[in-house]
Write a structure and sequence with these properties.
The complex is a heterodimer of chains A (259) and B (500).
Chain A (H helix, E strand, L loop, with lengths): L1 H10 L20 E3 L6 H10 L5 E2 L4 E3 L8 H4 L6 E3 L14 E3 L6 H4 L8 H6 L3 E7 L5 H8 L12 E3 L8 E5 L7 H10 L5 E5 L1 H5 L19 E5 L6 H11 L8
Parallel strand pairs in A: 6-7, 6-8, 8-9, 9-10
Antiparallel strand pairs in A: 1-4, 2-3, 3-5
Chain B lengths: L3 E3 L4 E3 L8 H13 L2 E8 L11 E9 L4 E9 L4 E2 L10 H11 L2 E2 L24 E5 L11 E7 L2 E8 L7 H10 L4 H9 L6 H15 L6 H29 L3 H22 L19 H27 L1 H7 L7 H6 L4 H6 L6 H4 L20 H24 L23 E8 L4 E8 L5 E7 L1 H13 L7 H8 L3 H5 L1
Parallel strand pairs in B: 6-7
Antiparallel strand pairs in B: 1-5, 2-11, 3-4, 4-5, 8-9, 9-10, 11-12, 12-13
Helix pairs in contact in B: 3-4, 6-7, 6-13, 6-15, 7-8, 8-13, 13-15, 14-15
The chains are: A alpha/beta (259), B alpha+beta (500).
Amino acid sequence: MSSLFKARLRHGYQAIKSIENAKINERFKGLPKILVESVTDELEKKLVSICPVNAIKNKPLSIDLGKCIFCGACEDFIEDSPIKLTNNHIMFGFKKDQLIITSKTDENYFKKLDLEDKDKNIQKLFKKSFKIRNVSSGGCNGCELELSASFNVNFDAARFGIDIVASPRHADAMLITGPITKNMKEATIRTWEAIGEPKICILFGSCAISSGIFSESEELGREILSKFNTLLYIPGCPVHPLTFISATKRLIGWGEDEP
Amino acid sequence: MEWCTVQNQIVHSINEIPYRNLDDFQQEISDYLNRDFRLIMLDVLNHKEKYENKNKKLIAVLANDDHSNLKIATSEIKEDQNLPSLAEKYPSIAIFERILAEENGIKFSNHPYLKPVREIDFPFSYPSSKELHQVGVGPVHAGIIEPGHFRFTCEGEKVISLEISLGYQKRGIKKILLKYLKERQPLTKIFALIESIAGDSSIAYSHLFSLIIESLANIYPDKRDLAIRGIFSEMERIAMHIADLSAIANDVAYLSTSSFLQALRTKVINNLLNICGSRFGRNYIGIGTNRYDFDDKIIENLRKNLLEIRDSFINICDDFFSNSMIVARLENTSILTKEDAKLLGQVGISAKASGLPIDSRSNHPYGIYRHFPIYPYTIKNGDVYSRAFIRYIEVQQSIKFILEVLEYFPIKERFDWSKPLIEMPELAKNSFCINMVEGFRGEITSFVMTDIDGNVSDINIIDPSVHNWYGLSVAMKNSAISDFPVTNKSFNLSYCGHDL
C-alpha cells in the first residue's frame, strides 16, 4: 500500500494545462512553413521526387497537408530547402481543400477557419458532450495509439467533453483511422448507419484523408467515403494528440482562449 | 541432410540453396522440427530465372536458436500436385500452409482446417452440440483497437474454442513494397511504407529494412549509428511494454497503475520526439547512417530521463505486482504451456513467458547487439501474470542496456555518409539474405532475393504475430470468456503486421 502512495506522490499533476499554448519540442515535425512563392523547375523536380506521397506542387509552391506524412525529407535532404517543418501543432480543415497551404498561409490561418452556417448547429448540440466512435479501417496502429493517448492523464481530451464510446449507438461522430481497406468497407458503413442523427464523420491522419502512403494499394475501397458527412480533417502521420484535441475542440465550438 | 546453413544478415548466392525433391523436403522439415529447429518461413519463390515451367518453387527456412544458424532449401511442386500437409503433427506449420493455399493456390491433401488467412467471408465452424453457444466479437471493437473478428464457442462461461478471423487490415503491402523496390523508388518512400507495416513497431521495421539493404549492398555503417539504432529499438520496447502493462492494469480495473503508466509512456516517447521529431521514432533510421547524430545534450538528457523513468517504473510496478488482488486475478489465467508454445512455434513475449528463451538479440545477434549482448529471461508458467511480469523485467533490462551503451558510447570513426542514402544502392546480384530483428512483440523475419541485374525479385516479411495468433486461441481454451480482454492484452498481437 505504501508503494501506491509513493507512486501517486511521484506522479503528481502531469496534465498539460493549455492545449492551444502548449509548446512541443522544436524538433517536432509539425505544420510546414513555405518560405518562397514558387521554385525553379529543377528544385521542383527534386522536391517532387523525394516526397513519398506527392504532397508538393509548384506554382505556387504548396503542400497538401492531407497527403503529407511529415517525414521531413523535403527539409532534411534538399540543400537550401524552401520548406521548413515548424513545431506548430495546430492544423486541421473543415474541408479537404483547406489543408493545402502555400507561402501566403500565415500563423492565423487555422484560427480564422470556421464551419459553414448550415453545419453550425452541431456546435450548439455537441459543445459540452461529444462522443466519438473510432473505426480502425486499415490503420497501422500508430493513429490508434495516438488517439488513445489523447485521453490519457497528460492530454486529457475529456476535459472538453470529448470522449470515446464503446458503441456507435452512443456516439455523435465516427472517427476513421487508416486508408479504408476493401475488407473494412462493410463494417465502416454499418458503424455509420448505427449512429443516430445528427452525426458527423472525422478523418484522422493522412491515410484516412488521402490514403497517404497506401495510395498505390489495390486493396482499398475508398468510394464509401462519399456516404459520410465528413466535417473535420486532421492531418498527421500519426496525428499528435495535441493536434487532434485542438482541432476537435474547434469543431465543437470551443474558443481558442478557452483552455 | 544437405540443407544450406546460413546466418542472420549474411548474404549468399542463390545457387547455394540446395534443391530437394518434394518427399525428401517434407521429410527433412519434420526431421528438423523433431530436433531443436523451428520453422520461420515456408513460401513460394517468385524468381523468374530459376523456373520457366509452371511448377512452383517452395522454400523453407528453419532456425536453430542454440547454434545461431538457419537452414534453407527449396523444392518444386507441380501445378496439379497435392502437397501432403504437416500441420496435423506440427501445428506451427499450419499458418504457413494456409498462406500457401490462399496466395499461391497450392492444394493440400489432408490439412485439418484450410481457412484463408486474410479473407473475411469464410464461414466459421459451428458447434455440433446444442449445449454450446457462440459469441462473436468484432471487427469493430469496443475500444480503440484494430479490427479482427473473434468467434468463441462456449459452454456457459467456459470457452471451448476460439476461432480468430483476420484480414480486415489487408493493404497488400508486400505487393506495393516489391513494386517500389523493383522500380528503385527513393528510399524515403520505401521507409515510409516499411514503417507503416505495424505503426507500433516502426523502429523495429525500419531497423530491419536498414539491415536488409546494408547487407545486400555491402555497406558498413559506423558503430555509433548501430548503437543509436539499438537505443531506438530499446526505447520502442520500453514504451510499448509500458503501454501493454497499462492496458493489462486497465482491464483488471486497477486504474491508478494504468494512469501512472500511461503518463510514463508519454515521458519515454517524448524522448524519441526530442531526438527525431516523431513520438514513434519514424523517419530516423536510414541506410548508411541515421538522419541526426546524438549530441552531448541529447545523451545527457536521455541518461537523466531514463534514470527517472526507471525509478518511477519500478515504484509503480512494485505496487502492481505485489497487490494480492492483482496476483489472484492474473495468476493461472489463460495458461499456454511450454509444450504447446514450442509446438505452436511461439516467439517473443509469449514464448519467453512460457519458458522458451527465443530472442533474436541473443540467438541471432545483429547490429549493436553483437557488441552489447542481451540475454532473454524466461518464466515457466505461461499465464497472464508471466506475460505481464516478463515485460516488467524486459523494460528494466532495456533501460540497463541503453545506459550501458551510453556509458561506452562509440565515437564516430567513419564519415562515409553525412546523410542517409536516398537512392537505392547497388545490391549484390543473384543473392539472398535472411534478416531477423527483435521487435517488442518478438522476432520479425525477412527474406530478400535479388536477380542477375541486382534488382529485388522477391521479398517476404513475417511479423511475430503470424506465429503467435494461434497461441492466443490455445491459451483461451478452457478459460472463462471474461478472461479474454486481459489475455488478449497480455499477448498484444498485431493485426496489421499479420494482415500486411
